[in-house]
Amino acid sequence: MRAVPSVPKIRKLLVANRSEIAIRVFRAANELGIRTVAIWAEEDKYALHRFKADESYQVGRGPHLAKDMGPIESYLSIEEVIRVARLSGADAIHPGYGLLSESPEFADACAEAGIVFIGPRPETMRRLGNKVAARNLAIEIGVPVVPATDPLPDDIEAVKKLAAQIGYPLMLKASWGGGGRGMRAIREEADLAREVTEARREAKAAFGKDEVYLEKLVERARHVEVQVLGDTHGNAVHLFERDCSIQRRNQKVVERAPAPYLDDAQRRELCGHALKIAEATSYVGAGTVEFLMDADTGRFYFIEVNPRIQVEHTVTEEVTGIDIVKAQIRALEGERIGDPASGVPAQGDIRLHGHALQCRITTEDPEQNFVPDYGRITAYRSAAGFGIRLDGGTAYSGAIITRYYDPLLVKVTASGATPQEAISRMDRALREFRIRGVATNLTFLEAIIGHEKFRDNSYTTRFIDTTPELFQQVRRQDRATKLLTYLADVTVNGHPETRGRAKPDAQAAAPRVPYIEAAIPDGTKQKLDALGPEKFAQWMRAENRVLFTDTTMRDAHQSLLATRMRTFDIAAIAGVYARALPGLFSLECWGGATFDVAMRFLTEDPWERLAKVREAAPNILTQMLLRGANGVGYTNYPDNVVRYFVSQAAQNGVDLFRVFDCLNWVENMRVAMDAVREEGKLCEAAICYTGDILDPARAKYDLKYYVALARELEAAGAHIVAVKDMAGLLKPAAARVLFKALREATGLPIHFHTHDTSGISAATVLAAVEAGVDAVDAAMDALSGNTSQPCLGSLVEALRGSERDPGLDPEWIRRISFYWEAVRNQYAAFESDLKGPASEVWLHEMPGGQFTNLKEQARSLGLETRWHEVARAYHDANLMFGDIVKVTPSSKVVGDMALMMVSQELTVADVENPSRDIAFPDSVVSMLKGDLGQSPGGWPQALQKKALKGAKPITARPGSLLPDADLATERKGIEAKLERSLSDAEFASWLMYPKVFSDFAAAQGEYGPVSVLPTPSYFYGMQPEEEILVDIERGKTLVIRCLAIGEPDDKGMVTVFFELNGQPRRVKVPDRAHGAAGARARRKAEPGNAAHVGAPMPGVVSTVAVTAGQKVTAGDVLVSIEAMKMETALHAERDGEIAELLVGAGDQIDAKDLLIVYA
Fold first, then answer.
1. pLDDT at 1128 over 80
2. HEC states along 310-326?
3. Which of 422, 598, 614, 694 has the fewest C-beta atoms lying within 10 Å of its C-beta?
């Protein structure tokens, strides 16, 4: 062994690198008592590594340079690094990994400057750093290799011949460098020229050399590498192997040590090959010898040597106990392997202890094909604890991640006694992280290490590419950040539904749910489950006590507060109903207008409301309103759509379906009724009441009409018959006659629903009870009266002690009503100006739910002062249409006609005049055409003919004319548009309201689950110093405090400062009142639009290869994008002409930005 001159101890070490690896080396040097020097580029001036060193100096800028250097160029400049080393007095340089770490020219420059290079000798780097030279070495010393070419010539025809000699598939690699750059799989000759050209350019940009070569591609391969260490005395050892098979785009994602699938014999063979190469080159420092292992044959093939420390060195350190970075430094100080001072034992004393794996947490977004994200980290909470090691870069709250550098945030290394313990520890650590402000791959990593193939070691290097389920749950919920965004927006801009309207009384008491500690007793739900629908109906009819439905959760607030009641307030009290009023017949809590209003105006999911009420009140029937053939919409749907919706409603918790048709046309109700029966739920078929059965002048709707209708509904399969008096027209005397007759005509129980617009509906209800009605609707006191239902508490008191006493506790009714009273104050913006009862209802016959809405429409048209004319016109329009049943949507048609008549000063005679042209509202034309069905006695022929202007009316059931919807195809289409899968219930929402649901889904994606916010915060935002507690799920509460609201900046953006669980957060939102719309952003490519070419990643447009008006053919390069040291060329996917070019070279873009539009 040759004598080695003594080497002085290193006093000051410069790290020619950045971020995580620079910090790692600084820490090792500090432990060795060595002072440290950092370098940083202008774009890295806030990077954490520059603050972790004893000294730091800028590179790439200054008067000594002819021009400023770029963000990567600054770190690749050998002259700049040597300049700083001399300036700082550093006597050694550690290159880290990447950048200059594999440059023999850099090692030469260090030697010429008299600076110790912490790495192999330049001649070793030349021999091993060039993959072709390293391959030839392996062949010389008997290490097996994969068939490959020499560096490729420029002549593409010659390249094709070389490729054919080896045989496809092939792997194209850069001769210099690593990190997967320049590497491409090529499976056919047609791709060869394009891939070689792009690989050369990428290699040149990343490593300064464009030399590439081809290698045989082993399809079922494992990637396993051996860590070697050498000293200056000719000694070399291995630290066993690492498995690096979990890769994407040839970049390692998860690394393990030792490889769990090797036995001892394979381990000895593999490590022996690696040591041969280290010894043959008199290797100095740390290096990695990489091999492919054929998963089918177990054979190893040498790939290359990385003559530097690797990203994944941490797992080897954990299982051997050897600090590889310190070992590098000590080796270059002249220490001998085997001596204690070197920190590296002799080979026979190096042993494995347990297992370790490493995950790289990056800002690569799995939802956007892993394009790197950048921006400010708004919140950062890392993992910790036993067996967890973190090696981080610039990763902390407030850190800015730029687009110029590698997207790595932190490396997490978990160790354990067994592979499973290490995996479980890693899983815990990944779930412990909270990173907000930028996208991350955290959930993707969780999916990998939780997958069965990872845990049973059956994976190969194509595991990620061939396991699509890894991508199914890649989105973090990030609910807190989204809710803060919503709160900031509504604080700055207000809510569109409350802006300019009356505000709640600030002095009023906040809603307080009355406390009750009691078990939930069985109720009507359990009786239904036990008896089934038919026997339940028999029980209901035989029950002596009158049964009560509480409408507060649906029709009461629909009638009084424009349907704007939120799930937050409804779900909070449901559990009290279950415990305090278990004797209720049902809770009407879903369907009707509440369905679309929840999505359209309240940004919440109606299915969530149903689920929460069902969960909190499992003992009381849940009741919904179903508009027959219209579902919960305002149009006709194919029969299978109605059936699908009913099925979803039943599966998600609806027990009782009140089915009605707006014209009392039973034919239009049959599909919905049959669907309810098929689901085993209660089918309550409703008769909509209009007219006056005791008035001979309104003989169209006499007692015989209602009795015949009840019998028809019984024959159609109804379990219960409801009388739906939506305008409150039924008078007490008529009620006695009607309900007595209905009870005698059918064997079904009768359920009565009315409204108190007249002020005397309680008398009607009591009369109905006397006549034998089985169930009645009422609203909690605080939300009763006027256009709502009669007062529940008063009716219960009136019946108390009678033979039909409902058995409900008046005290608890009052307590629950006090809650609703406080809740109602929060909805002051939606109160109507109706001060008391109105006998006018018997003139216009408007449904209670429409009354307030029509007044609002009249106000918006400037007809507020002419309301009584509108009421008269409503009466006249109804008679003009033939005296029809008026309930949504037919009542809206009458309202549209009335508003038109008043605004245009038209009388009925004017409208009916054959010689006067009238532009009828669309809703009127649609109704007279037959789109809503058929009215009793048919439509007035002359009016119908005039409105249809020659079009032929339909008399068949509208739904029968619609073909069944292709549910599978439609679902696939909306899921593609929204770029996510939908639940069955969500798909049902889309079927009912495609645009409303799509808009809601977009808002939900941006703002999160806003239904969990307190109502005042939802509608009015927060004031400085205000604090709220938000339960995002059971056992998870956010404490949100608004600290301050900034002034608009020059772009009209306002920063709102919050504390979230005590941690500072800030959110920027546009101040729309002052002209900012947040619309300065680029247009976005529309999913599924073949004419749109969108950006696949955020970054900078490096080149633009086309112009507007240019014709292109499939495969032509359109633009190239550079981000995070990666360049991506976008190719034309089809022939065409460029209509619009929306970007230029140097433009900064975000993912999905629209770049090009085809003609």
1. no
2. CCCHHHHHHHHCCCHHH
3. 694
Q: Are 410 and 391 in contact (CB under 8 A)?
A: yes
User: Does residue 1 surpass a pLDDT of 70?
Assistant: no
Query: What tokens were used for 750?
Result: 């009768």
Element (H, E) at 897: helix 890-903
Residue 240 scores a pLDDT above 60: yes
CA-CA distance, 1156 to 1141, in Å (whole number)?
Answer: 5
Indicate which residue of 52, 131, 173, 252 is catalytic. Answer: 252
Asked if residue 69 lies in contact with residue 80, where contact means CB atoms within 8 angstroms, the answer is yes
Q: If you average pLDDT over every residue of the chain, what do you get? A: 91
CA distance 654 to 649: 6
682: enclosing H helix or E strand: strand 682-688
- Mean pLDDT on 670-686: 97
Quickly tell me which residue has 């006493």 as its tokens: 805
pLDDT in tens, 349-382: 999 999 999 999 999 888 777 888 888 898 899 9
Residue 497 has pLDDT above 50, yes or no: yes
For the stretch 80-100, what's the b/e string if a residue is b when 16 or more beta carbons lie within 10 angstroms of its beta carbon?
bbbbbbeebebbbbbbbbbbb
Strand residue runs (E) in 985-1062: 1027-1033, 1036-1045, 1053-1060
How much of the chain is in helix, strand and coil states, percent to nearest 5? 40, 20, 40
DSSP 1105-1138: ---TT-EE-TT-EEEEEEETTEEEEEE-SS-EEE
- Which string of b and e fits 150-184 if b means at least 16 CB within 10 Å? eebeeeeeebeebbeebebebbbbbbbbbbbbbbb
Asked if residue 575 has pLDDT above 60, the reply is yes
Q: Name the residue type at position 60.
A: G
Verify whether residue 740 is a known catalytic residue: no
Confidence (pLDDT) at 521: 97
Q: What number of CA atoms fall less than 13 Å from residue 414's CA on the CB side?
A: 20
| For residue 958, cis peptide bond before it (omega within 30 degrees of 0) | no
| Mean pLDDT value of segment 283-289 | 93
Sheet of strand 1111-1112, all strands in order from the earlier edge strand to the far edge: 1092-1094, 1154-1158, 1136-1141, 1111-1112
Distance of CA 724 to the CA centre of its chain: 41
Do the Cβ atoms of 982 and 605 come closer than 8 Å?
A: no
What is the DSSP track for 165-193?
HH-SSEEEEESS--TTTT-EEE-SGGGHH
Three-state DSSP class for residue 1005: helix
1123 closest CA partner among 1142, 1104, 1095: 1095
Distance CA 417, CA 696 (A): 92
| Integer Cα distance of 841 and 759 in angstroms | 10
Which of the 8 DSSP states describes residue 1084? B
CA dist 472 and 986 (Å) reads 17
Mean pLDDT calculated for residue range 1041-1055: 89
- Lowest-pLDDT range of 137-151, 482-496, 665-679: 137-151
When mean pLDDT is compared across 130-134, 612-616, 776-780, the lowest value belongs to: 130-134
